[in-house]
Write a structure and sequence with these properties.
single chain, alpha/beta, GMP Synthetase, Chain A, domain 3, eight-stranded mixed sheet, 23 helices, 11 strands
Length: about 625
């Protein structure tokens, strides 16, 4: 058992660098290089040495304990007495870096990553006034392990239920479909089934479908045209010096992604950001043994923490990220998926943009696209769709003041604000789009970030359908949640945020569900006109016109995009772009069914199946 030695905080301690040199823990050249980085980046010498791999945490803790005439403790080998740790003090343990360790002979032994007068005063606030105290040094890694071990059930409950407990109207967890909405849907379907197929009834339905279809086409076309010319918010990535950069948390949720571990660690190593200010969390399900083994075998650097999420329902990405937030240290936080390759300066650009704008800007959405975009027709269509959304529509949404539906990755968020709003909805499978609307409803803003992250596009139609139906299901769920109290969007942002909710979230999915009605009417009217109810020629012409206009607009937007960029090899794919949008209807009906029977089921997208090894995108595609 560790022995605790008396010490005086006023005592002059020897310099850490001198101790490390004398003990030959680090070479003189290594210390000199670390001191030079310290001058440029700030931080503490020992932490810099650990993050670059010159030291490990046990070596640093041992050196600091020797420097300060303290004892140290390894909380993996000598765990805490968990009866001494209380959930009411969890916030203090996390914020100030300490835990009660053991109680012996009337003395409470406290393990801390740093012993200062402020830390002593904080411990006193959470212990009996007359309790004798003694302090030991330990590492931040050990403290995280101790807290995760003791509070695993509490943190899991918090990750699943905190949003619902604090903001029930904003949570889809216990009632994804409100009763009035379900009754309305069932009533409509019943009416469609039993209503006499009179011309007036069919005529009314088709007119409504045509008008909705037309409004959606015009809205998206106008967004894309606006996005071609609107300026992006700008800030120089070098405007914030290294020493002023804040700690940045990066969440990497992995599930059955053993093959992706080396790639994502390589991508993190390529980020141009002081490593001692990177707080990277690899978030892995506790029963995903294959990914866990692959992660430990990869020997992640010290700035990467491995967090094991309890295997509980719902098994979703937002629940895993909520769990990890309890250990996040950054001022800002972002999420990357297992296959992501962000631009090296993306975090610097995000900090610069946050610094340049008022405090009501709490979120930035980077651009997304695919490094395997040219692999087949489907990946080409997916890449064009992403370019239209992230490079055209999102800047236009920002210019018009319409809430930005966030992508599932590379959204950069002020961590304090995220926690204030209850973090992500763990039961929503498009937690990103939901969060963007919650920001707007709270009077907060999201900006587009002109920085690219590359992903891996699905290669097959079945894989694409699974992913897209998950997204559409989440959009429908998000629309339902925010239609419970739409006045909040109108009160804080006016009419435009509400309109964006209708067209971008609810309307987009509804159009995909309505489109097959137009197809069926047109096809049957052409093949078997005598068997259809009497429909005026102008209504039938409207159906044909809307289908033609929809396909033409999709083709025109895709063709214009490839022409603007000089995107070579994409011209032939634009010819099939309307067919790509027809696939959305299949995904929409699958999503509607899942929303009713399995609203929180997460259809997993398999990564690492592409044959493309070069994770770069040509300049014309970027």
């Amino acid at each position: 058992m560790a022995q605790v030695l008396d010490f005086s905080l006023s005592k002059a301690f020897p310099r850490l660098g001198e101790l490390l040199r004398r003990d030959e823990a680090v070479t003189e050249a290594g210390i000199a290089a670390a001191l030079e980085r310290q001058l440029r980046q700030g931080g503490r010498l020992g932490e810099l040495l650990v993050m670059e791999g010159s030291l490990n945490w046990p070596q640093l803790v041992a050196a600091l304990a020797k420097q300060q005439n303290l004892a140290s403790v390894d909380l993996f080998a000598e765990p805490c007495d968990t009866s001494l740790l209380y959930a009411a003090s969890l916030g203090s343990y996390q914020a100030h870096g300490w835990v009660p360790w053991r109680q012996q002979n009337g003395v409470l032994y406290v393990a801390a990553q740093e012993v200062t007068p402020a830390l002593m005063a904080e411990v006193r606030r959470h212990t009996d006034p007359g309790q004798p105290l003694a302090f030991l040094l330990t590492s931040p890694r050990d403290l995280r392990y101790a807290l995760a071990s003791r509070f695993v059930n509490h943190l899991d409950w918090q990750a699943r239920q905190d949003l619902f407990e604090r903001y029930p109207l904003w949570s889809s967890c216990r009632r994804p479909v409100d009763r009035w909405m379900l009754a309305g849907l069932l009533g409509f379907l019943t009416l469609m089934t039993i209503a006499p197929l009179s011309g007036h009834f069919v005529e009314t339905v088709l007119v409504f479908a045509n008008l909705l279809f037309l409004a959606s086409i015009l809205f998206k076309w106008r967004l894309v045209e606006k996005g071609r010319h609107v300026p992006w918010p700008r800030a120089d990535a070098a405007s914030v010096p290294d020493e002023a950069l804040p700690v940045y948390t990066v969440l990497l949720p992995l599930y059955r992604e053993a093959a992706s571990v080396p790639g994502i660690l390589s991508a993190m190593a390529g980020i141009d950001y002081p490593k001692h200010k990177l707080d990277v969390k690899l978030i892995i399900e506790s029963d995903d043994e294959e990914t866990l083994h692959a992660t430990y075998a990869a020997k992640p650097p010290a700035y990467v923490d491995i967090l094991c999420v309890p295997a509980s329902q719902p098994r979703t990405k937002p629940k895993a990220c909520n769990y990890a937030l309890a250990f996040a240290r950054g001022e800002y936080v972002t999420i990357y998926d297992a296959e992501d390759v962000p631009a090296p300066d993306q975090l610097r650009r995000a900090v610069a943009l946050f610094t340049a704008y008022p405090s009501d800007v709490v979120c930035l959405q980077a651009r997304l696209n695919y490094y395997n975009y040219a692999e087949n027709w489907l990946t080409r269509c997916f890449a064009m769709e992403y370019a239209l959304l992230f490079d055209r529509m999102i800047p236009a949404l920002h210019a018009w003041g319409i809430p930005i539906p966030l992508g599932g990755t590379s959204n950069h968020i002020a961590l304090r604000r995220l926690r204030e709003l209850g973090a992500w909805d763990p039961y929503n499978v498009t937690e990103d789009a939901d969060l963007g609307l919650r920001f707007a409803a709270a009077g907060l803003r999201t900006l587009p970030l002109d920085s690219l992250t590359l992903e891996e596009a699905p290669l097959t139609i079945p894989a694409w359908l699974k992913q897209r139906s998950r997204w559409i299901k989440g959009y429908l769920s998000t629309w339902i949640v925010h239609m419970r109290a739409p006045e909040r969007l109108i009160r804080h942002g006016g009419f435009w945020p509400w309109l964006g909710l209708q067209f971008l979230i609810g309307g987009a999915s509804l159009v995909y569900l309505i489109a097959p009605i137009l197809w069926v009417v047109c096809l049957l009217g052409w093949a078997m006109p005598a068997r259809l109810p009497p429909v005026p020629d102008w209504v039938s012409l409207g159906c044909w016109s809307m289908l033609g206009l929809g396909w033409a607009s999709q083709w025109q937007m895709a063709w214009q995009l490839t022409r603007d960029r000089g995107w070579r090899g994409m011209g032939w794919a634009t010819l099939g772009f309307p067919a790509y949008w027809m696939l959305h209807s299949l995904a929409s009906f699958r999503a509607l069914w899942q929303l009713l029977v399995a609203p929180s089921h997460w259809d997993k997208t398999q990564h690492g199946v592409t044959a493309v090894k070069n994770r770069e995108i040509p300049p014309e595609a970027a």
